[in-house]
């Protein structure tokens, strides 16, 4: 019986870390890597050049970012492309105005372990308030509705 539990425990410990989820607190390394302002609700958007859905959603997020300035809400992108030059060219092609952290070593994406791309995390004072994974039609409308549920008026 003891051997069975040792095997089960070993298997559980070998599983990859679960993705950050609603209600979780960020680790210090994740907070530092994102340079989050604790006074602002931040939408963290994980994306990559190879992600077709990201290519459709990022222009909407970019437009919305420019209207969020006076609301106490901001956006930080995390480009997970392993080739920084590819990522920078992609960001330039889309004309992104919000700050972007390039993550070529995959340290942030490995810490968050999102289960789909793009991945949005709403974070305030180190706590994840809401998560959205994968392609979402009319993402700016969805984000606006999410923010309204959180008491943010645009």
UniProtKB/TrEMBL annotation:
All copies of domain Thioredoxin, residue ranges: 6-152
Ribonucleoprotein in keyword set: no
Any one Gene Ontology BP term: cytochrome complex assembly
Keywords per UniProt: Cytochrome c-type biogenesis, Disulfide bond, Redox-active center, Signal
Pfam families in UniProt: AhpC-TSA
Residues making up the signal peptide according to the UniProt record: 1-19
Entry-linked Gene3D superfamilies: Glutaredoxin (3.40.30.10)
Molecular function GO labels: antioxidant activity; disulfide oxidoreductase activity
Subcellular localization, as worded in the UniProt entry: Cell envelope
InterPro entries named in the record: AhpC/TSA, Thioredoxin-like_sf, Thioredoxin_CS, Thioredoxin_domain, Thioredoxin_ResA/DsbE_sf
Top-rank lineage group of the source organism: Bacteria
Cellular component, GO, one term: cell envelope
Protein's name according to its UniProt entry: Thioredoxin domain-containing protein
Species this protein is from: Vibrio caribbeanicus ATCC BAA-2122
């Amino acid at each position: 019986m003891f051997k069975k539990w040792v095997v089960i425990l070993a298997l559980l410990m070998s599983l990859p870390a679960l993705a950050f989820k609603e209600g979780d607190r960020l680790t210090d390394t994740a907070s530092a890597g994102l340079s989050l302002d604790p006074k602002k609700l931040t939408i963290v958007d994980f994306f990559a050049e190879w992600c077709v859905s990201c290519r459709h959603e990022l222009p909407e997020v970019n437009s919305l970012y420019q209207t969020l300035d006076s609301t106490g809400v901001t956006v930080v992108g995390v480009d997970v492309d392993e080739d920084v030059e590819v990522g920078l060219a992609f960001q330039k092609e889309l004309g992104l105005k919000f700050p972007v952290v390039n993550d070529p070593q995959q340290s942030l994406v490995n810490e968050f372990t999102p289960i789909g791309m793009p991945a949005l995390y709403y974070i305030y004072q180190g706590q994840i308030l809401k998560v959205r994974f994968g392609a979402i039609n009319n993402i700016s409308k969805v984000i606006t509705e999410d923010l309204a549920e959180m008491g943010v008026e645009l």
